[in-house]
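Deliverable D4.2, example record:
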Amino acid sequence: MNKNNLILVVLFLLITVYIKAQTPPIVYVAGDGTGDFNCDGTSDQVEINQALDYVATHTDFTTVYLKGANTFEIDDPVLVSSNTIFTGDSTATIKLKDNAAWWTQNKPLITQTGRLGWDRYGIDGEIISNVEIYGFRIDGGLFQEEPSGSEYNTLIHFTYPHNVNIHDMYFQYGQWDAIRLSSFDNTTHTDCHIYNNKIFACGHDAVSFVGVRFFEVYANEIYKTRTNSGIRITECDSAYIHNNIIGNSLSTSASGNAGIQIQNEVYPLNYTEI
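Output generated by the structure prediction step:
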């Protein structure tokens, strides 16, 4: 084979590998070098966010997939844009590094791109829509200095959500809420669904909706909410909550508060079925 033909073969192979690695609609993130974006176990949110940004800016792509078995250790939030599917193997885990000591209230492990600051409810305009998250695990990490129940280290928090679906996930060891969807104006028609998740030892509420309307929470297993409730809706209406298991594991000490907590002071509670 002459030199020119060899160069053509090499170029062909390189182009083939690139096309294979960037075949729509999925972008893969891995810890073993087999992904389109590859993590090394330190500040893995950098590569995950690069993958999510790639999907957000390339219309042929819809999905970021975390490959397992692997723990993706993060020390800053993962940022999801609208119109994104974020999924992975059941053996893939996003984990806040142990002893992270963020000491920043309302800072979530996963939230939306463009958040203007960390607060309980979101700032008007921080909208996210058409997002599906499923399949992998989220771990709040061990030995965090912040106290449970005190608004530190939410696992997922989206503000002004519309058509956000979170299902078939495993959550553990957050210091505050595991899943929190909020707008606090009671005018957002969320059309969100939280289902088939397992949530263990979160620090506050396992699932919390604040100031939103039209959502469904079902078929979740929630154990050992350390300081508050399994499912909590605040200033909400038009909710359907059914077929959840909420309580304490027989293998751990009892903790927590209400199974389902409902509180409304400003807006009336209408059209809600439990």
